[in-house]
Amino acid sequence: HILHAHDVLKSRENTVVNVNKWTLRGVLGDLFAQLKPWPEKEEWQEMNVFQKSIVSVNLIPTFLFKLTIPHNEQPWSKPIALLQCFTCPVFLLFCIQMITISPFPSSPGLWLYALALSAIMSIVVWILTKLDGEPRFYKPLTSYAGFLMSIAWIYLISSEVVNVVTMLGVVSRISHEVF
């Protein structure tokens, strides 16, 4: 918590890339500033060996969290909002293990419906929002979406922990009631 709280404060102050026009450099710079999972150079140099090892282990999870969990404390970024329109619904279905389920016989999996929903959401975000101005509905929507995606992450991680513990029980031939 301490490492990430400082990261959020830094992102508000220093890593805001003000994108005024849709240029490749501006959009990629904004995406890089918003999604980068590592600390600033000065912050890295102030860390001890233990903190550096924790940050190094957390690079991939931190990137995935930033990619899939909308965070209302971060400044408005239209490229991030558009990217999260695609990552959040598909990842939510993946977490609850329903991505390949077909709702009707001979219909495509739910992943295709999630992509269609993502396309609709991204069109709405594209049309109704400005590149350089935060919409007034941004904070409430990202709060709800962030809460929902956090629950999805908790469910995914806890399911994997239960699966690993069950596997350890099977391999060691210990009754599952003990675990």
From TrEMBL:
Question: Organism, per UniProt?
Answer: Caenorhabditis japonica
Tell me yes or no: is NAD among this UniProt entry's keywords.
Answer: no
Q: Name one GO cellular component term.
A: membrane
Q: Name one GO biological process term.
A: intracellular calcium ion homeostasis
Tell me the protein's name: Ncx-6
InterPro entries assigned: CaCA_antiporter
Q: Where are the transmembrane segments?
A: 81-104, 110-129, 141-158
List the GO molecular function terms: calcium:sodium antiporter activity
Q: Which UniProt keywords apply?
A: Membrane, Transmembrane, Transmembrane helix, Transport
